[in-house]
Amino acid sequence: MAISGSLERLREQNRRAITAALAAGGPMSRADLARRTGLSRTTVSTLVSDLVASGAVVATTDRGRPHKGGSGRPPLLVALATPSGVVAGVDVGHHHVHVVVADGSGATLGEVREPVDVDQHGPQTLDRAATMVRTTLRAAGIARDQLRAVGMCVPAPVDRRSARIRTGILSGWRGLSPGAELERRLGVPAVADNDANLGALGELSRGAAVGLSDVVFVKIASGVGAGIVLGGRLHRGATGAAGELGHVQIDEGGHVCRCGNRGCLETLVATPRLLALLQPAYDDVLTLERVLALEAAGDAGVRRILSDAGRVVGRALADLGNSLNPEAVVLGGPLGASPALAEGVRTSLDRFSQPDTAAAVRVLAGSLGESAEVVGAVALALARHGAEAHG
């Protein structure tokens, strides 16, 4: 009896892995699901057949591409059955809250973004986010009882063991469990993760990393963070702190970082630092939008600073790449579309990575821009809703 129960728990765990992969990555072939989940093709085929029979998964009329560009017959794809109701994605940045309400396929039904002073005001920000979700539902003509799940990103690591924020980066949030707090306010399941992880999930599900399995997403903003995707799944680490690239020490005698250490990567390349380096050379007050416009116009000073920043980021990524061997580095955040930044990252990867590792990795600009995190939050909500509906 105990063995039978253990086998059933394993099957249930494997079914959830398949539905989570489909929720995050959209329609896939059985071979893609095997690669994404690490399960054998036989196991995937059996479980997909069970899920199709139960109505949780449907066979589509679409066909994918043969693996690695092969010339065989394109495989048939399977997808999650579209669950009823809607979900919400909530992107909490340092200075804004961005809410998207989406249907079961992830299509946007309503959206709002507001400036909010976030860092010192955790409970008040969560109150505001809950109000924005309700307002967006109402504006889209959707009854509140149609909301099934909410995904939320915050600009700090979320402890996997307690689901709480323990870091001092968001001083007004220390000890809060943001998912549980939002769930209490809205009365539906809510789950939270950090912004770099959900930026990675957004680009994986609907952006530059669609179809890839091993990716490092790097967000360069007021801080620096990375979302790591291994085998098609987010890698969060033992406590949820995986990907804290911004706190890799670059200069042990450098400036004190907000984390309390000295010489961290983000003290050199975070956007406030880059703006401060550039400002003395310009009469008008520089913004990130202005910096990107100057780069597009060929400004040599801007290109130099951004390229230098890319080299510093790329040096840290080279060490990470030697360990993880990713297919791509996806650059996100306000400067993710900068060609000079990407050029600098590429230069350091080529110089400091192992030759085979450097040859395998592409450097890509994120295609979702500043919407990557909220798209990832929607994908997280869909995965939670899918697990509830099909579990």
Present the secondary structure layout.
Elements: H1 2-25, H2 30-37, H3 41-54, E1 57-63, E2 76-80, E3 86-92, E4 96-102, E5 108-115, H4 122-139, E6 147-154, H5 178-186, E7 190-194, H6 195-206, E8 215-220, E9 224-230, E10 233-235, H7 266-269, H8 271-278, H9 288-296, H10 300-324, E11 328-332, H11 339-352, H12 355-360, E12 362-365, H13 372-390
Parallel strand pairs: 3-6, 6-7, 8-11, 11-12
Antiparallel strand pairs: 1-2, 3-4, 4-5, 8-9, 9-10
Helix pairs in contact: 1-3, 1-13, 2-3, 4-5, 6-13, 10-11
Based on Cα principal axes, name the global outline. Answer: globular
Order of neighbouring strands in the sheet with most strands:
5-4-3-6-7
How many domain units?
3
SS-derived structural category: alpha/beta
By DSSP (H or I, 4+ residues per run), the number of helices equals 13
Superfamily (CATH H level) name of the largest domain? ATPase, nucleotide binding domain
> What's the main sheet like?
5 strands, mixed
From the alpha carbons, calculate the radius of gyration and give it in angstroms. Answer: 21 Å
Could you say what the CATH topology of the largest domain is called? Nucleotidyltransferase, domain 5
How far is it from the N-terminal to the C-terminal residue, by CA?
22 Å
Protein name: ROK family protein
Pfam family, one: ROK
Domain HTH marR-type: 21-63
Family: Belongs to the ROK (NagC/XylR) family.
